[in-house]
Prior knowledge:
Distance between the termini: 63 Å
Helix content: over 70%
Structural class: mainly alpha
Number of strands: 2
Mean pLDDT: 79
Low-confidence stretches: 6-21, 248-268
Shape: elongated
Largest sheet: 2 strands, antiparallel
Amino acid sequence: MVKFFRCCKARVSPELLSKKNEKPEAFLPSLRMILFIFRMFYAWPDEQSLAPNALWWYRAKGVLFRTFFIYLSAAAQLAYNFTVTSREELFAGMFVLLTQLVLILKMEFFYKNVSKIQQLIRRLNGKRYQQSGNAEEDMPLVSARKKSTIFWTLYFMFSVGLATEWLVISLSLTTLIVPVWPVVDHTTPYWVYLMVIFHQYVAIALNASFNISWDSLVAALFALTNAHLHRLQIQLMKLGHRKHLHPPKDAKRRMIAVSSFDDNARSVPTKSDADEVYNELLQCIIFHQEVTGFLREVLDLFSGPLLAQLYCSVFILCITEFRLLTDVNTMADTVQAVIYLLCLVIQVAQYCYFGNEINYMAQKVHRATAFVNYPDMNIKCRKLLIAFQQITAVGIKCSAKYVFTIQLSMETFVTILKTSYSYLAVLRSMTD
Length: 432
C-alpha cells in the first residue's frame, strides 16, 4: 500500500505544495502579534537576509535581553526561597519560581529550535494551504483564526491585567510585586524601591507576553491543522459530484431517451471525466498526507515542552487553589488568585481543545470518504479510494510523546483539573 501511494504521489503537480517568498504575517494574520513579541525578544531572526555578523549580534542581544529580565528574576526568586522561614512565604516563592522555570525551559527550547519553527510557519504558505476563493472551504480557516485570536486575547488580557493590578497594589502599599532577595522594605531608599518594582513589573509583563505567545503559537498551529482537515472533509464530500452540482446550461433542453435495460450498456464515465475524478481524489490524498505530516512534525517538535507544561500545570493549579483557600484574606487577593487561576485554565484548555478538535475532525474525514460518488468511479479510482479509506480509518491521535504520552483532548483537561484537586485535598490534610 505504501508503494502504491508513492506511485500516486509522483504524479502530483509540483505546483501543489509550492511556496512563495512572503512573510508569515501576509498569509497568517492570526500570528501577527505573536511574531511581534518574538521579535521584541530577539527570538525571530531572518536568517536569509541577515549577514553572519548581524545574525550573531542579533542572537547576542537576545541573550542579554533574557538574562536581564528573565534569568535575573529567577535567580533572585531562588535565593529568596532559601531565606524564608514560614510556610506561606515558601509557597509564595515556589509558586513564582515554578512558573519562571517552566518559562525558561520553553524560552530556551524556542531559541534553540527557532529555525525549525520558522520552517513550519513557512510551510503553511503552500498553495494548498491558501484560501481557495470558495466561501465554504474558507470558512474553517476564518473560524480557526477567530478561535485562536479569542484564546490569545483572553489569555493576554488576564495576564497583563493581573500584572498591572499587582503593580498598582504594590505602589499603593509600598510592597514588592513578588517577594525576592535581597529584601526591599520600608528602610530601603524610595528610589531603589521604584527601580526594583519597575524591573519586576517589566520582567513579569515580558514573561507573560512570551509565555502567551509560545502557547498561542502551538495552539494556532493546531487550530489551522484542524481547519485544513475540515477543508479536506468538504472536498471529499464534493468528490465525484461536481458534475451533478453544476450541470451544463443546456441540460434542461436535452431529450432523455428511454430504452430497455442492457447489462452491456451501463453508465460508465468518459475517460476525461474518470481522469478528472481520479486526479481530484489523488489531490485529496496528497493534501491529507501533507496535513498529517505537518501535524506530526509540530508534535515531534513541541512534545517535550508541552509535557513539561501539562505536568507542571497540575502542581501550579494545586498551589493556586491552596492559596485561594488558605492565604487569601481580602477581596483584592481573591480577585488576583481567581484571575491567575483563569490564566492557567486558558493555558491548558487551548491545547486540549484544539487537540480534541483534530481528533474529532479526523473521524469526520474518514466518514466523508463514504459520501464520494463511488458508483460512477472506474476500477482504478475505486481501488485508490479503498486504500485511502483504510488509512483514514486509523484516525489521528493528537498527543504529546516524550518518555510519557498525554493525549491532547478535553478528557485530559478534565483529568488535569481532577488531579490538581486531589493534590489539593492531600496538601490541605497535611497542613491542617
